[in-house]
Amino acid sequence: MMLTTIGLMSGTSLDGVDVALIETDGKRIQAFGPSGYRPYTERERGVLRQALAEAVHLPERDARPGVLAEAERIVTLAHAEAVSSFRAQNRIACEDIDIVGFHGQTVLHRPDRRLTVQIGDAAALAKTIHIPVMYDFRAADVAAGGQGAPFVPVYHRALAQSLQREGPMVVVNIGGVSNITYIDGADTLIACDTGPGNALLDDFMFRMTGQRFDCEGRMAAQGAADEAWVARALEHPFFALPPPKSLDRNDFASLTLHEKSPADGAATLTALTAAAIARIVPLLPKVPRSWVVAGGGARNLTMVRMLRERLAPATVEAADALGWSADAIEAQAFGFLAARGLKGLPLSYPATTGVPIPMTGGVIARP
Ligand SMILES: Nc1ncnc2c1ncn2[C@@H]1O[C@H](COP(=O)(O)OP(=O)(O)O)[C@@H](O)[C@H]1O
Ligand SMILES: [Mg+2]
């Protein structure tokens, strides 16, 4: 049975809420619908940043001490607004949507402590938007000993199946953190986080220039990457670990660049993201033939150029060049995962998150 789903994603970049509609039975993608975006305001983003800082000390996933309660209200409200303007813009009635997949905002990801915390009140959201909401996708995986991330690989596999190209291919998602899905034929699906995505670069740009990100990679394009610094950063033990493995947004926040101009610093951090992605190649079963880049990082032309240089002779294409939407993929993925959760299909596998057995997940909140 085909379902009409809306997926909602608010990633580690803290930029805003992505919304996307797809029709799917949880196995195939029948049709892509429209997508939308609801950015956080500066004030909201400030509260979320503070929530991430305070969440470091969270003892358990349901606690909302201090600023976390306000941050949760902001997340719920922003998602409700995202759905209502999306429905209005595209003239979609709530009865036409079978399920909403609500990721929430990760404020702490510590699989080693069997703890991953996504804030956002799914029950309140379901009541406000009058649509059933599936949430807490990562919890069952982490409780069972999995990494709880990445969760997009099953969706990447469904996308790749429709391409029918010769493997192995990799889809790399460059959000706040970067993650890859390695696909080889119908049976091999391997995934992991690879290291920093845009978060370190965004933080650096904000500190040095007041801009939230390096638009199209223009700042980095004017600078020179400090390759010695990149090589030293790659000595962090995380990079030598085989997949599956995952990261918290702030795991590399201690990597500091000293005395660099904005251009050289941006070039160096962009190079680190590209190098960390390329560093996964020797840890994969075969060298990939082709790479597809998605997430906000796909819009950073310097990032894509550096990836091409480091991954040659493999091909590197932006997701949009294939008719996919780099911006909407993750939101689409959570609609897809909601359909899978409803049907009890696995959301994660031993080779994507390290969970001992294929694992379904998600909890439903009804309006
Ligand atoms: N036009 C652009 N040029 C360069 N980078 C961009 C552009 N648009 C978005 N980005 C980057 O992408 C990030 C958002 O990516 P996204 O895929 O939403 O990540 P997340 O899933 O972590 O929220 C921004 O913080 C920024 O670093
Ligand atoms: Mg985002």
Structure overview:
- The chain has 367 residues and is of the alpha/beta class.
- The chain contains 12 helices and 12 strands.
- Strands 1, 2, 3, 4, 5, 6 and 12 form a 7-stranded mixed sheet that branches. A 5-stranded mixed sheet has the order 9-8-7-10-11, with helices on both faces.
- Helix 1 packs across helix 2, helix 6 runs antiparallel to helix 9 (262-278) and helix 8 (227-233) packs across helix 9 (262-278).
- It is globular, with a radius of gyration of 19 Å.
- It starts with a strand and ends with a strand.
- The mean pLDDT is 96.
- It binds adenosine-5'-diphosphate and magnesium ion.
- The site of magnesium ion has 4 residues, from loops.
Give me the secondary-structure topology.
Blueprint: E1 3-10, E2 16-24, E3 29-39, H1 42-55, H2 67-90, E4 99-110, E5 115-119, H3 122-129, E6 133-135, H4 139-143, H5 153-163, E7 169-174, E8 177-184, E9 188-196, H6 199-209, H7 218-221, H8 227-233, H9 262-278, E10 290-294, H10 301-311, E11 315-318, H11 329-342, H12 350-353, E12 363-365
Helix pairs in contact: 1-2, 2-3, 6-9, 8-9, 9-10
The structure holds adenosine-5'-diphosphate (ADP) and magnesium ion.
Magnesium ion (MG) binds at residues 11, 13, 15, 18.
